[in-house]
Each structure stands twice: as C-alpha cells, then as structure tokens.
Write a structure and sequence with these properties.
The chain is an alpha/beta fold and 633 residues long. Among the domains are: 208 residues, Rossmann fold, CATH 3.40.50.300; 110 residues, Helicase, Ruva Protein, domain 3 (Orthogonal Bundle), CATH 1.10.8.60. The protein is 50% helix and 8% strand. It is built from 28 helices and 11 strands. Strand 4 and strand 5 form a beta hairpin. Helix 7 runs parallel beside helix 11 and helix 10 packs antiparallel against helix 11. The longest helix has 27 residues. The radius of gyration is 33 Å and the shape is globular. It starts with a helix and ends with a helix. The N terminus and C terminus are likely disordered. Keywords: ATP-binding, Membrane, Nucleotide-binding, Transmembrane, Transmembrane helix.
Length: 633
C-alpha cells in the first residue's frame, strides 16, 4: 500500500507540473524537421512557438526548483550513483553558475557522463549557456560524443527504474524543452544546438571541431533537425559540404601515402596478382573513373582457404571503416532450391513472411554502398542468378513488397570453387618454372623475390571460361562481371609467412591467457610448412600448427610442466628413422636457469620416482611434485 501511495503521489506531481505549463503558455505543435520530413517524431515539447531559451530562462529555472523539491522520490536512485562533486558539476553547468565553474574545471573530467547518458557539454548546449559551453570546449570537452540516453521507457528498462522516475530526472537534470516520447540515442551537442535552432551555439561547436556529418542512431545528421530555410540550416549545410570536401582531400592524400595494395598486403599473405587487380579497379571507382550507372562486380576463383573471403572483408573495412552494416555476406549454398529466392528478396504479397523482407534487401536498405559477398555462388539455384543478373546490370533490386533499392555504389563479390583444381595445378606449374630460375630464393633472408606470375589469357579462354559457361549456362551473366580474379597456391616463402603468423597468434594467446612466453627457431617454420595441402590452403597450415605444436603445449600445461612465468622454446629435429620432422619443446620455468625437454614427460610413463628424477631436474620436480603424485606417477 505504501508503494501504491508513493506511485499515486508521483502521478499527481506530474499532472500538477503539466497543468502549470498549460497555465503559463498555450501549446501548439512544432516540427523539428523540414515540413517534408514527417516520419520523424517531434523532439521538442509542443508549445505556441519554438521556445527561445533566453526569453524563458527564469520560468524554466522556477520549474526546475519545483521539480527539485517535489520530486525527490524520483531521483533517489541517480543521487546514489552520482558522487557529490560530479553532481555539483552538473548542477553548476545546468544553472549557468559560471563563477563556480572555474573552480570545478581544474580537477574534473569534462567529458563525464550523467548516469542516464548525457555529457555536461550537451547539458550546457540544451540549456542555451553560451559562455559555459565555450569554457567546456576550451577545457577539452569532446563535441562529437553521442548521447547514450535513448528514451523514457527503454532507459527505464536498462537502468531498472520506473519510467516516471526517468522522466522526472530527465526533465529536472537535463531539460524540460524536449519531447519525452522521442529517442535521442546518438545525439551530439551539435544535434541539440540545431534542435534548439541556436546559430551561435552551432558556430561555436563547429569552431571547436564538431563534426556536422555525424549521424545519430536514427541515421540523421544535425542539419535534419534545423528549421527549414532557416539560418541554422544554411550554416550547417555549408559546413557539412566543407567538412565532406576536407574529408575527401584527407582520404585522397592518405591513399597516396598508403595505397590500397599496401593495406591489403598487411593482412593477406601472397595473392599479389589478385590484390593488384582489385586495388586498381577500386581506385578507378574512388577517383571517378568508373561507370557510375553500374556497380562493380568481381568473381573470385581459387581453392578453399586461399584468401578470397578475407580479401572481401578487408576491402569492406578499407571503404567503410568500422561500419558493421557495410559488409554483407550470404552463403549461396542456402539458396539451392527455386523457392528460396524469396529468402533473398522477400516473399511476395499473400505469403508468409511478406512483411519481413529478404535477407539481401533488408541489409542493402541499411547500407546501399556495402560490399556484398556471395559465397560459393556456383551452388545457388539458376533463378537466384536471374535476380543477381538484374542487380549487376542495373544496380537496383526490387523486393517482395515492390520497393526498389538503388545500390549502384555497392561492390559485389562472388566466390566459387569452379576450376579450382585446374587453377591450382596451373599455378604450381608456373611456380616450378619460377623456382628453376631462383633455386636459392630462400637461402638468404635478405633476398625476397616476388613471384611475378601471370596467367595467360589463352589459358583462361581455353580452360577456365568453358568451365564457367558450362555451369552458369548464360553468357549475359558472365558478361556483367567486371573482373575475374584468380587466386593461386602459396609459394614456399608465403607458406613460411603463414606459419610465422599462426605461431605469432598462438604466442600472443599463450601470453595473454596463461602468462607463458613462447619462442621458436626457423627450423619449426620449415617443418610446419611441409604440412601444406594445396586443396585446403591456409587452413591446412592452421590445422598443422594446432596438431603438432598446440596439442603438445596444451598437454604440457594440463600436466603442470608449464605454467605462469614459463618460457617454452619450440624447435624441429630430423631423426634418420623418421619420415618427417619431430617437434620438440623445451621449457624454462620461473626461477630456473636451464631449459629442459618436456615432450617425453607426458608421452611416456616413467616406471618409478627414481626414473622421473633422472629425467627431470630437481627444481622442476619440486615445482610439480603435487601434480605428479595426484596422477599416480
């Protein structure tokens, strides 16, 4: 009953506050956006005109004091979270007490957030305090941080609070000028300045580095929230164009200094021919030397595990940076039946799932310029290829609801294992010819000779194209492909690189998870490279390292022979009676000077404790005596 009584009190408080507002001024509807943008909700409270803060500052402060006294029950949770100094900092900024602000700014984080998500800079902007905003910016406040406050209901669910409490805190400690039904996730200080139609604050924020191109969670830039044809909109439009132009110039200069080829080679071993073809084609598009009416289409051919998918991922990251929606991967083996075309573009009207849309169309709506990977396209049904034909030809796609998606700026990449055996064999033959010319190419570490291997056009026409035509059975589909890219088997030098990278990965994991240092010599790289299988590519190297090295490390760790502070040295030996190299592990535990071979310690069981003493130094035996006794050795 007590909880119900308090809840009724809160409802009564809200009603009295709203009645007070209605008595102070007449309300009418105001849209934040241009009149032609009607789908967005109003972000300001409905009132007779867009409220100018400097004219109503006294009324708002009186309302804040009313909320402070009467709404203590609604802010108990946030008061418990805020430290006194931080709470005082927010209050000083909110009320514009500039004299006291100077003392607080000396030893405080100017980018601190309120427990509900906003920063002090947003608080100063939304309350129209120009001088406070300027001081915060001079002290290093970041104008490009986004608001973590979503809306009343969602924030209440996340914080475990009642929506009325969230509403009271939002209005008391942030602003009463905002629509409590709107969503503010991702709003920057510039979004709020545009929302309040404050030209002075917009200029100040841009002067201190505010990015007018940042989009909020709804995908809108600050200019979307300015009044149509107003001074703020004209200013933001000019600054947005200027910022985008500067950004393009920086990207152009960055591409000159650090070309795409170098970026891709940092993550992809070998495949220099494939990297060159893709980089040259993308460069044409970036610099305006491509057909803008058609998207770029690639077909990647080669064996499994040779870098086709990784190249597509790295290309998407290069173009779109950290945008997760910019890389779309579809496994075409899921579209082997005719009816599964609906999964791609959406079911037609009257069928189940009509309102949900297709897997491709939904993702392309989010990012029409995405890099789209159709993995193993040769496994898809011919009707799916018909859909792709329209996509590649016209750069648009019509979903099951009849809506058209324009995606002429997208890059489409298909991968296939067709002719992979022929390509692999031809690549090996070409490499043998190169090895005859450079027999000692691995004898010197300094002399790294790049394989300048090129597949002749005659071989492509005579061998590969007939295979492609025989499978796809349509020349118009192959004719829409800008470049067919061939991925060749790895050379010996590239295999050593793969082994080195895989060992580096496991060494980092061992250091991070188990505090174990792992070292190795060149002999281990050569021994593991012998496990390469041309049909499985880099995956065969990965599995070889796991089988022959990681298995031994895991077993030694389980039996307690290596642990926190240990150093393990891995080497390869070539016994006369063995068909292949034998991987040996030597360990130096913490506080021990000498390395000890440990591979036989867990592959054979000693007959007695004396036998164990002969095999293991006494220091290592003492460290692991409890483990040895527990296992009955």
């Amino acid at each position: 009953m007590l909880k119900l009584f308090r809840l009724c009190q809160r409802f009564d408080l809200i009603n009295r506050i709203r009645q007070c507002r209605l008595n102070q001024e007449k309300a009418r509807s105001i849209s934040l956006l241009s009149k032609n943008v009607e789908i967005l909700p109003n972000f300001l409270n409905k009132e007779e005109k867009r409220r100018k803060w400097h004219e109503n500052q006294g009324k708002s402060i009186n309302l804040v004091y009313t909320l402070t006294i009467a709404g203590l029950l609604g802010v108990v949770n946030c008061d418990a979270i805020l430290k006194m100094k931080n709470k005082r900092f927010f209050k000083v900024v909110q009320y514009g007490v500039i004299d006291e602000l100077d003392n607080l700014l000396e030893n405080i984080d100017v980018n601190i957030r309120h427990p509900l998500g906003w920063t002090v800079l947003m608080l100063a902007v939304v309350n129209g305090h120009y001088n406070i905003t300027e001081k915060l910016l001079k002290k290093g406040a970041d104008p490009n941080l986004g608001d973590n406050f979503v809306n009343i209901n969602r924030t209440a669910n996340e914080k475990g609070m009642h929506p009325i409490e969230i509403l009271m805190v939002r209005e008391e400690e942030f602003s009463t000028n905002l629509n409590n039904k709107a969503t503010f996730l991702g709003f920057t200080a510039l979004h709020y300045a545009a929302l309040l139609n404050s030209l002075e604050l917009c200029k100040l924020l841009v002067q201190y580095g505010a990015n007018p191109c940042i989009e909020n969670d709804a995908g809108h830039k600050p200019i979307k929230y300015a009044l149509k044809d107003g001074a703020v909109q004209k200013f933001l439009e000019k600054e947005t164009q200027k910022f985008e132009q500067i950004k393009k110039q920086k990207e152009l200069e960055e591409r000159r200094l650090y070309p795409l080829e170098e970026r891709l080679k940092k993550f992809i071993v070998g495949q220099e021919g494939a990297i060159t073809i893709v980089s040259e084609t993308v460069r044409r598009k970036e610099n305006g030397w491509a057909d803008e009416e058609h998207p770029l289409v690639f077909l990647f051919l080669g064996s499994s595990g040779i870098g086709k998918t990784e190249l597509a991922k790295r290309l998407a990251h290069y173009i779109h940076r950290e945008n997760k929606d910019a890389f779309i991967r579809l496994d075409m083996s899921e579209y082997q039946e005719k009816h599964e075309v609906a999964k791609l573009i959406g079911a037609p009207p009257g069928y189940i799932g009509h309102d949900e849309g297709g897997q491709l169309t939904k993702k392309l709506k989010k990012c029409p310029s995405a890099v789209v990977l159709f993995d193993e396209v040769d496994k898809a049904h011919p009707d799916v290829l018909t859909v792709l034909l329209q996509l590649f030809d016209e750069g648009r796609l019509t979903d099951g609801q009849g809506k058209t998606i324009e995606c002429k700026d997208a890059i489409f990449i298909m991968t296939s294992n067709l002719a992979s055996d022929e390509i692999a064999q031809h690549g090996l033959d070409l490499r043998r010819e190169v090895e005859k010319l450079h027999e000692n190419r691995l004898s010197s570490e300094k002399s790294r000779i790049i394989d300048n291997i090129k597949i002749s056009r005659k071989w492509k026409d005579d061998v590969v194209k007939p295979i492609l035509k025989g499978h796809f059975k349509r020349d118009e589909f192959l004719g829409r492909i800008n470049e067919i890219v061939y991925f060749l088997p790895f050379s010996r030098h590239e295999l050593l690189q793969l082994v080195g990278r895989e060992l580096d990965t496991w060494a980092k994991r061992a250091k991070d998870k188990h505090k174990i240092d792992i070292q190795w010599d060149r002999s281990i790289e050569s021994a593991l490279a012998d496990g390469y299988d041309v049909h499985y590519g880099a995956r065969s190297i990965k599995y070889e390292v796991e089988r022959r090295v990681v298995n031994q490390l895991a077993a030694a760790h389980e039996k307690g022979f290596i642990g926190n502070g240990s150093t393990v040295h891995i080497s390869a030996q070539y016994p006369d009676e063995a068909d292949s190299a034998v991987i040996k592990l030597k360990v130096k535990n913490k506080g021990v000077k000498d390395y000890v071979e440990i591979d036989y310690m867990y592959t054979t069981k000693p007959e007695s404790i004396n036998d164990l003493e002969n095999r293991i130094p006494i220091s290592l035996l003492v460290d692991n005596l409890n483990i040895v006794l527990r296992r009955g050795l």
